[in-house]
Amino acid sequence: MGRYICNGLDEARISADPANPNTRPFDVIVIGGGTFGAVLAQHMFFKDKQHSHRTLVLEGGPFLLPEHVQNLPAFRLGSLAPTSIADLRQAGKFGVDKPQAEVWGLPWHSSTKFSGLAYCVGGRSVYWGGWSPQLLDTETPPDAWPADLVNDLNNPYFGQASAQIGVDVTNDFIFGDLHKALRKILFDGINANKVPDAVPLAQLPLHLNPEQIKPGEENLNKLEAPLAVQGSAPRAGFFPLNKFSAVPLIMGAARASWAEGGGDDVKRRLMATPRCHVKRLVTVQDGATWRVTDVETNQGNIPVPQNGIVVIALGTIESTRLALNSFQGIPSYNQIGKNLMAHLRSNIAIRIPREALPNNNQLKKELQSSALFVKGRHPINGKGGHFHLQITASGLGPLGSDSESELFQKVPDIDGFTPFLAADDKSVVITIRGIGEMEPQNPNSFVRLDPETDENGVNRAFVSIQASPNDQILWNAMDKASDAVAKVFANGMPFEVFTPGGVVKANAGSDLSQILPHAPGRRDSLGSTHHEGGTLRMGANPGQGVTTSDGRFRDVSNAYVAGPALFPTLGSPNPMLTGVAIARRTVDRLLPSPTPPEPGFTSLFDGTEATYKLWQTVGQGAFLLIDGAIVVQTGGDLGLLYYPQGFGDFTLRLQFRLDRIDDNSGVFVRSRNPRLAVPRRSNPNISDMYNNQAYVPVDTGFEIQIDELARGNKTTNPPEPDGMDKKRTGAIYDIPTAPGAGFQQNFAPGPALQPGQWNDYEIAVKKSPGGDVYTVRLQGQQTTTYTNTDAYRGKPVQVDSDSGYLGLQSHTGRIAFRNIRIKT
User: Does 26 share its domain with 130?
Assistant: First the structure.
């Protein structure tokens, strides 16, 4: 399947070979095919209605799985436990040839142990837990977050990201008697102020689709877990999305790109290359800023065209390392790597008796699972202090203890599912996980380069991350809230606490901090969350951030970032939702807007995919949508792209561009439908089908010529010389211009054209008593007029319902057309 989705870097290079006139360079190079790189590349492919960009995704690892590991049978592909390079080396398990759990690796040194990175297409999104709350307004403080970014996130990008990853619908995945009973207990406990620092429910936004909610139950449903899981089909005939990962996004885009190009790599707008490690970005100083000119990989350099961009979409620490190894000398270099944040995390698991649940005698025999969410805030010096509690619960037998496994890791088969139907659960296991934000701008938390180089000869990163005194205050408050929630669920009855030393009995009067100490008993290390962020933070002004509010490096004109490294503050949510939202926003800001319609004219092609698809092709060659223009790729004979509608009198305006001075093409007007048989001039009662239908407009319509060299037909006897005006740009092709040579056009050459520049054509056809009058203007200057007295060709649709067609010719050269509009 990896070969079905991905390409080798050699194939990508061949498809962009500048020596081939039909190729096109990659002008968007995404470094990292993990979560946010995949989201950005997929959105770029499908949102780019003008086909203005060609994207190459470089992923350091292989293609591993087609979706989230928990949507599939039990492969048991776990993540890397927190460790260090020193520990792995000592155990003989360090090196690119020794991945942990197939794809996990740790490339940096650090002051604490880290879980490292998943080197595979989709990255950590293949493994993540799915919890995706939205940042509150207080988690995007105006003194840290650019105002335009926050406004855009709130409308529309948080909503788009929620829909994309499935957070706006959770009740289809979590439901049942246990869930309702626990939700009611928690709701009553918060309203009774039994949970310290819990944000009042009335102050929280509703993350679910309001159409799911019964009137009056809005606050109750704010306790629903914001899970990126969809358990039922979004509409009839669709499969459920299940737990979100980014792999299906990049798969869908890669295959759609292949289909769009007809299997020809040269025509593909997106390619993904695995096992390609980026070492550094090569830059040149360009005035007051720097510009990336090449991407240096372990397989050689990839050039970045003059108008191209690179997007660094690795994990936070590796994105920072790449920036530190690439951008020495830029003014903001010393800010790169500062502001490192992760999440404070604590866990407590309890077991309550079934009798603690309200109306437990009326509950079903099988209690199933539940997931709930509590938002908390404990401001410190009036700032920050956000945390939340992720609560999972499962009705289990007396020996069961893993509620998260019950909730997330059940892909049932019939043999495994049947025992659950007969379960008689006596207790409920509840896991309460606290997630708290770290204070920004902690000078003791940073990423810098390490003296040691990796297997590619590039300096590793060194990571220092420490909890500040204020972080410790928040951690204590979060653990206190967890203890209170545990007692709320116990509902006054005795319960049990799981500790490293075994199960300990507790009651409403117990001090849970003595049974399971807050520190270090229940706290995870700072390197265990995979939620690092902040080191390439965005800022509205110089000095406020390494990157602009668009995610571009402030001092590098064509280098962008995707992922939580951009966040000025972290808040308490998993960075997935915000990272997806920012990636979508970045794409939208990079894409051009469609050509606005000209007053009084109807657009036949405005640069978008929608209008491009209205045109049809016959003959040889190809017509591609590239950068909002129709670009001709010639074949062995004439080709034609035509608009499948006949017109009467009209004024047609368009732009065209030569790639080389010897390009030859034309605009056909007033021809017959090329797909139909053509009546003979000698006997209209007999019609013929053309072998190459691109010749139909040659005989039945008129071609407005594009040929700066005015080349003659060398197949005639004698051969025609070059330089005749009737073959020149701005003329009606092959209509004599000299007196006494038959039907004449009044031709005067227009301005000389230059390759690479856009030129304006206006073609008007109007009825007159002596015959239809054709007038052509080039760059606003009239080049010819011609009165047609030939009854066989150039018929308007009112005279012949199969005539009046327009078309663009493929002859020789890579000519381009855009902004085609008509007034009738």
Answer: yes
Instruction: Give the pLDDT score at 408.
Output: 58
Find the mean pLDDT for residues 157-170: 89
pLDDT above 50 for 420: no
Distance separating alpha carbons of residues 615 and 638, to the nearest angstrom: 17
Tell me how far apart the alpha carbons of residues 264 and 279 are, in angstroms, rounded to a whole number: 29
DSSP string, 308-337: -EEEE-S-HHHHHHHHHHH-TTSTTGGGTT
Tokens of 292: 């990336």
Range of the structural domain that residue 723 is part of? 602-823
Total residue length of the chain = 824
Pairing mode of beta strands 289-297, 278-286? antiparallel
Per-residue burial over 321-339, b if 16 or more Cβ lie within 10 Å, else e, is bbbbbbbeebebeebbbbb
How do strand 629-633 and strand 495-499 relate by DSSP bridges? unpaired
How many structural domains are present in the chain?
Answer: 3
pLDDT digits (tens, 9 = 90+) for 770-801: 999 999 999 999 999 999 999 999 999 999 99
Distance, in Å, from the CA atom of 559 to the CA atom of 561, rounded to the nearest integer, reads 7
Tell me if 672 sits within 8 A of 701, measured CB to CB: yes
Single-letter code of the amino acid located at 348: I
Cβ neighbours of 361 (radius 10 Å): 7
Same domain, 204 and 284: no
Instruction: Report yes or no on 720 lying in a domain.
Output: yes
* Mean pLDDT value of segment 469-483: 98
Single out the residue of 625, 663, 617, 619 nearest to residue 642, CA to CA: 617
pLDDT in tens, 591-622: 987 778 899 999 999 999 999 999 999 999 99
Question: Full-prediction pTM beyond 0.85?
Answer: yes
Start-to-end C-alpha separation, the chain: 52
Confidence at residue 412, expressed as pLDDT on a 0 to 100 scale: 47
| Residue 732: exposure state from Cβ atoms within 10 A (0-12, 13-18, ≥19) | buried
Tokens (6 digits) for 190: 């918060």
Q: Which of 122, 103, 125, 128 is nearest to 59 (CA)?
A: 122
